[in-house]
Amino acid sequence: MVGLTPELIIAALAPTPRTARLVIGYSGGVDSHVLLHLAAAVPLLRERITAVYVHHGLQAQAGQWAAHCQQTAAHLAVGFQVLHVNAQPQPGESPEEAARNARYTALKALLAKDDVLMVAQHREDQLETVLLQLFRGGGLRGLSGMPERMAFGEGVLVRPLLAVAKQAIADYARGHGLVWVEDPSNQHSDYDRNFLRNEIVPLVKRRWPALDKTVARSAGHCAEAEAVLSDLAGRLAAPVFNPADQTLTISRLLAYSEAEQKWVIRHWLQYLQLKMPSQNLLARLQTEVLAARPDASPVVATADYCLRRYQDKLYCLPPHSLSLATGVWPHDQAAFVLNARQCLQCVPASTGIALTVWQQSCVEVRARQGGEKIRLPHRQGRHSLKKLFQEAGIPPWERELVPLVYLDGQLAAVGGYWLAAEFYCQSENACLRICLSKLPKAHDEMAFVD
C-alpha cells in the first residue's frame, strides 16, 4: 500500500526544479483537500504553493465553496486564487466534458515554464476512467488511463495520489480533522462517471475487492504498450510526413500494412492536436480516400476536421473553409494578416519588386475573381492563374486562399508564388519579396523520428 505522507508529494516532485511554482487544483472536496494538506506540510514547498479554485458557475453554492477554500488556504499559509470559467456545453459536448475542458483550459493558462499543476485524482478515479474508455471502445491510449505525469501547457501536470486508494484518503482526512465540502451533483447518477461510481463499482467490488488495484495494473500494461507502439508509429511516420505542409505521402503510406497505416494516421492526427479517429473513420479513410484513383478528390469529414487527397498527398483541413481578408496594405506594415492561418509578408531581397515602386504605389490585397492572367519573368506570353496553379500542384481548395497583390490596380504578385514581369527587378538590397506565411500554431511535442 502507498503511504499517505508528505514524502509522497516530495517524491512526485523530484524531477521538477526546486524553484518551480506549485499550483494545486483545489475544489474544496476531500481529495483535493488532502492533497493540499500533504503538500503544505512540507515547509520547503509551502511558500511556492498556490491553491486554485475553479468557479464553474454551475452550482448555487459555488461562491460559498470558494470562500471555504480561501479560508483553508489561509489556515495552511499557502497562496490562493479563484478562476471563473464558462462551463456551458457546446453543441455535441456533454456537461461533464464542458466543465472539464473549461477547467483545464483555465489551469493551463496559469502555468509558466517549469510550473507544476498537481491534481488529486486517485486509484478509484483511474478505475472509472479505464472503465469508461473500455465501454466506449477505447484503444490502448484510452485504456492506459491517466498518466502520473504529463506535459501540460508550458509546465507539467502531476497526479501524486494516483496510486492511492480512496479509502486511504478518507482515513487521512478524518484522522487529521479536515473539513471539506460535498458537491451534491456527485450523487446524481445521470452522469456516466457518477453512475459508475455510485451504482456499478460498489457492486463489482463486492465480488472483486481489489478491482481498483488490478485495473490500475492493467492500465499500466496498456501505457507501456502504447509508449512502444507510439515510438514505432513515429518511426514509420517519418518518411511519410511532409513538414512543409503537414501532409502524408499516400504512396509511401500505402507501402505499409493496414494496421501500420492506422498507427501512422493516429500519430499524425495527434501531432496536429486533433481528436483520435474512430475505427469507422479509419476504415472509410483507407477504402474511400487512400484507395481512390490518383486523380480523384474524395473527402472524409468529422465535426473537427476533414481528410482529403490531392495527387499523392493526404491533407487534414479545418471543417469549414476560411475567408480571405482584403484591402489596402499600408506601407508601414511589413505583414498583412489574411485570416487565422496565414499572412502576407514583404521582406528585403535582391530580386523582387523595387522598394521605390512599392513605396510610391497604392498596394492592395484582393481575392481571386477568376480569369486572371500574369506575365512571368523569363517566360513567354501571359499565363492564366488556373494553369499555373495546376502546374504547381496547388490543391483546388487552397487556390481560393491565395491572395493577389495589386500595385496601382495592376496585378503584381500571386501570393508568394509568382511575380509579374512588369514589376520584377534585380538590385542588391533594394527590392522586396512577397511571402505567404503561416501564422504560428503551438504543438505538443510529438516526435517524427528520423
TrEMBL record:
GO cellular component, one term: cytoplasm
Domain Lysidine-tRNA(Ile) synthetase C-terminal span(s) in chain numbering: 363-436
Top-level taxon of origin: Bacteria
Locations listed in the record: Cytoplasm
A Gene Ontology molecular function term of the record: tRNA(Ile)-lysidine synthase activity
First and last residue of the signal peptide: none
Functional description taken from the UniProt entry: Ligates lysine onto the cytidine present at position 34 of the AUA codon-specific tRNA(Ile) that contains the anticodon CAU, in an ATP-dependent manner. Cytidine is converted to lysidine, thus changing the amino acid specificity of the tRNA from methionine to isoleucine.
Annotated family: Belongs to the tRNA(Ile)-lysidine synthase family.
NCBIfam families: lysidine_TilS_C (TIGR02433), lysidine_TilS_N (TIGR02432)
Name of the protein in its database record: tRNA(Ile)-lysidine synthase
